[in-house]
């Protein structure tokens, strides 16, 4: 763990070793600049109310400083909540906020920061006012990832609170041009206060991929392979991919589809994969360890995840899996929605299609599987593009943005 006083701190409601996109981003940025960035988070998973398993070991091995509070957010409550329960929850939330503010005041006596980053606008936007008082010389930045901007809030008041926090911040970081546009059009954040820092990739793990046949480990053959990786939720579009698959099989006999991931749609997708018209060509891999994924990406002829924006605004914030596939030299077919438009360079590193249209998905995948020259060219372009998207460069860009905010004071 670093002993150098960090200049910037990222505050997040939950953190590694919990798995998630935001956690991955903050860990990568802090790891790239361990002397300048530290993390303030919780040792409790608010989604379950339980202690995060293994957090002590994670913190001890991290190359940067991590400060843990017992809680950063009240536990989630599912189902209908009555009046007295709501009253109790509001009282607990108020008490928790007072504890957090007290800890921040103690922290201010130990350290000073140039930049304080709120990693969740909805969960931490309330901290804007107390942070201004406790750290009057610090710039306050909100880091956004996509769905928390595009997705509808549960009430008009909640949306007003979100807008107020975003407009009160000295700067807003976002991971896609799609979200940057929403910040301006939906919430009135001036464009000059928005910094677009697309997600990066850990290039080191893609430098030397195992040469062994990873396909056989998953029961896959040497035939054309389309791979999908992601949480099994509706916005990822794996249901559309499966709906398109019989047409792909007709156009590319011997093709096989592998989908890695878990989630609420797991049983539904397994049932679809087992339909007679699939001919046993679809393999639902379930959970695949991170250390295995790079080789799996590299073994595929094409990566596919036809993501789409849901009616409530839920969408793909960036689509890091597209960039990871690119780093392994595999082109992608993704949905023309959300942040995927930044992760895939349409016509160059892959194809963007309507993620709601099985016909469009089938056509794009079939065309690329049957055109080895174009597919190889896109794979080479994808790899070249990914090599410019390492986390070291992303962290330097972020620090440059922080510096500019200080210089504008």
From TrEMBL:
<dbReference type="Pfam" id="PF13439">
    <property type="entry name" value="Glyco_transf_4"/>
</dbReference>
<dbReference type="InterPro" id="IPR050194">
    <property type="entry name" value="Glycosyltransferase_grp1"/>
</dbReference>
<dbReference type="GO" id="GO:0016757">
    <property type="term" value="F:glycosyltransferase activity"/>
</dbReference>
<feature type="domain" description="Glycosyltransferase subfamily 4-like N-terminal">
    <location>
        <begin position="20"/>
        <end position="204"/>
    </location>
</feature>
<dbReference type="InterPro" id="IPR001296">
    <property type="entry name" value="Glyco_trans_1"/>
</dbReference>
<dbReference type="Pfam" id="PF00534">
    <property type="entry name" value="Glycos_transf_1"/>
</dbReference>
<feature type="domain" description="Glycosyl transferase family 1">
    <location>
        <begin position="223"/>
        <end position="384"/>
    </location>
</feature>
<protein>
    <submittedName>
        <fullName>Glycosyltransferase family 4 protein</fullName>
        <ecNumber>2.4.-.-</ecNumber>
    </submittedName>
</protein>
<keyword id="KW-0808">Transferase</keyword>
<keyword id="KW-0328">Glycosyltransferase</keyword>
<dbReference type="InterPro" id="IPR028098">
    <property type="entry name" value="Glyco_trans_4-like_N"/>
</dbReference>
């Amino acid at each position: 763990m670093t002993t150098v006083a960090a200049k910037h701190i990222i505050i997040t409601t939950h953190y590694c070793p919990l798995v998630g996109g935001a956690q991955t981003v903050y860990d990568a940025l802090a790891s790239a600049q361990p002397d300048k960035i530290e993390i303030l988070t919780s040792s409790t998973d608010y989604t379950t109310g339980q202690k995060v398993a293994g957090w002590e070991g994670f913190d001890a091995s991290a190359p940067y400083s991590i400060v843990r509070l017992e809680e950063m957010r009240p536990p989630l409550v599912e189902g209908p909540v009555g009046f007295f329960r709501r009253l109790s929850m509001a009282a607990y939330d108020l008490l928790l906020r007072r504890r957090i503010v007290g800890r921040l005041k103690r922290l201010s006596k130990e350290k000073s920061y140039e930049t304080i980053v709120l990693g969740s606008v909805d969960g931490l936007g309330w901290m804007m006012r107390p942070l201004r008082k406790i750290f009057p010389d610090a710039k306050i930045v909100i880091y956004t990832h996509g769905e928390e901007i595009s997705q509808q809030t549960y009430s008009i008041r909640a949306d007003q609170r979100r807008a107020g926090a975003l407009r009160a911040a000295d700067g807003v970081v976002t991971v896609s041009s799609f979200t940057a546009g929403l910040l301006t059009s939906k919430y009135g954040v001036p464009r000059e206060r928005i910094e677009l820092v697309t997600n990066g990739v850990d290039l080191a793990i893609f430098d030397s991929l195992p040469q062994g046949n990873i396909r056989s480990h998953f029961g896959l053959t040497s035939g054309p392979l389309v791979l999908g990786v992601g949480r099994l939720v509706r916005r990822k579009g794996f249901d559309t991919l499966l709906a398109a698959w019989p047409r792909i099989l007709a156009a590319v006999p011997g093709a096989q589809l592998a989908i890695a991931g878990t989630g609420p749609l797991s049983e539904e997708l397994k049932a679809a994969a087992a339909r007679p018209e699939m001919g046993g060509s679809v393999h639902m891999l379930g959970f695949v360890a991170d250390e295995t994924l790079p080789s799996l990406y590299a073994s595929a002829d094409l990566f596919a995840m036809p993501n789409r924006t849901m009616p409530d605004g839920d969408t793909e914030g960036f689509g890091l899996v597209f960039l990871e596939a690119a780093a392994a030299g595999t082109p992608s077919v993704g949905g023309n929605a959300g942040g995927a438009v930044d992760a895939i360079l349409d016509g160059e590193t892959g194809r963007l299609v309507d993620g709601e249209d099985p016909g469009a998905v089938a056509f794009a995948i079939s065309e690329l599987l049957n055109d080895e020259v174009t597919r190889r060219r896109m794979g080479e372009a994808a790899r070249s593009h990914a090599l410019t998207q390492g986390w070291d460069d992303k962290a330097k860009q972020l620090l440059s943005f922080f510096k500019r905010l200080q210089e504008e004071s």
